[in-house]
């Protein structure tokens, strides 16, 4: 019997190591985003867009578990959308629904992350329907999206959304 405690971040661990050039190496963690990427760890740095190892945020085991559960559901929907079959339209509607469960859970996780570090939720945009840069307004409050300095996305700082 081992005296080691279970890894609280096990659900967020990739099968193999993430290449060094894909991991955030910013000296300070200024802002993170929760973003579905078909990878077990959906935490990314807003500044460099590199993956943020969950232990760097020092979140507790319940938050790590919630992040892992959200990633599983989000990525399942995303895979159905990518498959371009009979589920594509349905999956896109679920991913883009401001009141939908996957987005409500994601935004709840971002609220919890915001107690640790400023955090945002990356909003799904079906680029076959609309380009992200043409997205009209925040999908939650309908407020104006603002440019994020030197980035290809915009933000609603009130709702903590990136588009």
Offer a few descriptive terms:
single chain; 163 residues; alpha/beta; six-stranded mixed β-sheet; 4 helices; 10% strand; globular
Can you put this structure into words, describing what you see?
This protein has 163 residues and is α/β, with parallel strands linked by helices. It contains four helices and six strands; from the N terminus they run E-E-H-H-H-H-E-E-E-E. Strands 2-1-3-6-5-4 form a six-stranded mixed sheet, covered by helices on one side. The chain is globular. It starts with 31 loop residues before the first strand and ends with a strand.
Order of SSEs, N→C? EEHHHHEEEE
User: What's the count of strands?
Assistant: 6
Q: Determine Rg (CA atoms, Å).
A: 16 Å
Provide a count of the helices: 4
The amount of helix comes to 25-40%
Rounded to the nearest angstrom, the distance between the terminal CA atoms is 48 Å
Q: Please identify the structural class as seen in this structure.
A: alpha/beta
Strand content: 5-15%
Tell me the strand order in the biggest sheet.
2-1-3-6-5-4
Q: What characteristic shape results from the CA principal axes?
A: globular
Task: Record the SSE blueprint.
Elements: E1 32-34, E2 43-45, H1 54-57, H2 61-82, H3 88-96, H4 101-113, E3 119-122, E4 146-147, E5 154-156, E6 161-162
Parallel strand pairs: 1-3, 3-6
Antiparallel strand pairs: 1-2, 4-5, 5-6
Task: Sum this structure up briefly.
By secondary structure, the chain is α/β, with parallel strands linked by helices. The protein has helices at residues 54-57, 61-82, 88-96, 101-113; strands at 32-34, 43-45, 119-122, 146-147, 154-156, 161-162. It has a six-stranded mixed beta sheet with strand order 2-1-3-6-5-4, with helices on one face.
